């Protein structure tokens, strides 16, 4: 067996490990500034927070993000009373516009989705990411408890004219991230990679390589 074939098997094993490294993150939008929160959400959706987000290894390295309390998101300045959201129905004269406070009261999820969509690259995968990996809910209840989403540290919470950060959120986020990183390290240990290489060799009928043990 040539070195190139062994390299390909190793590459496939690492690629499979990276594809399995998919986490769920929880963002509490209450009192968070919409734009700054959207930047953080888009970063995790694209996988830019991962040091191994290589396009040639994993085309979709991003994670799932659950946003709760979307109706309580904050906007700076006078955007809540002045910002307009526009869309076209496709028919002549079908341009529709709605103020931010009206849309936020009627469909708060659309406000968050509109902000996050603007932070993602304009390519064919943008709508797929929005549909498959972004989950927005107006209140604190969501059906993704089984995935055990990791709470993300708030970027900036606005209360009146000042911002505040809850130390409890910071500590819980640090503990959750450390636990998730330990799981990733345990999965990507050399014995696990060697085991996956041996499994790939058996699938292609090459048998086990004694040197890999």
TrEMBL record:
Among the GO biological process terms of this entry, one is: translation
Matching Pfam families, A to Z?
A: Ribosomal_L13
UniProt GO MF annotations: mRNA binding; structural constituent of ribosome
Q: Which GO terms describe its cellular component?
A: ribonucleoprotein complex; ribosome
The protein's UniProt keywords, in alphabetical order, are:
Ribonucleoprotein, Ribosomal protein
InterPro entries in the record: Ribosomal_uL13, Ribosomal_uL13_bac-type, Ribosomal_uL13_sf
Q: Does the keyword Cytoplasm apply?
A: no
Similarity comment? Belongs to the universal ribosomal protein uL13 family.
Q: Which HAMAP family match?
A: Ribosomal_uL13
The entry's protein name is: 50S ribosomal protein L13
What organism, scientifically named, is this protein from? Cyanidium caldarium
Taxonomy, top ranks, is:
Eukaryota, Rhodophyta, Bangiophyceae, Cyanidiales, Cyanidiaceae
């Amino acid at each position: 067996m040539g070195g190139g074939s062994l390299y390909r098997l190793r590459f496939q094993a690492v690629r499979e490990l990276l594809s399995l490294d998919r986490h769920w993150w929880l963002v509490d939008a209450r009192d968070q500034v919409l734009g700054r929160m959207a930047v953080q959400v888009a970063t995790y959706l694209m996988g830019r927070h991962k040091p191994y987000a290589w396009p040639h290894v994993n085309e979709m390295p991003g994670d799932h993000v659950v946003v709760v309390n979307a109706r309580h998101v904050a906007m700076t300045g006078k955007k809540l009373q002045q910002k307009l959201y526009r869309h076209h129905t496709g028919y002549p004269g079908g341009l529709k516009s709605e103020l931010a406070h009206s849309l936020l009261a009627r469909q708060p999820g659309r406000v968050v989705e509109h902000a996050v969509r603007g932070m993602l690259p304009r390519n064919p995968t943008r709508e797929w990411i929005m549909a498959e990996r972004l989950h927005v809910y107006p209140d604190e209840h969501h059906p993704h408890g089984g995935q055990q989403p990791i709470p993300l540290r708030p970027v900036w919470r606005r209360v009146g004219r000042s911002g505040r950060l809850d130390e409890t959120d910071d500590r819980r986020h640090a503990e959750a991230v450390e636990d998730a990183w330990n799981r990733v390290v345990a999965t990507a240990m050399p014995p696990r990679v060697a085991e996956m290489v041996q499994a790939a060799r058996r699938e292609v009928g090459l048998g086990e390589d004694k040197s890999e043990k």
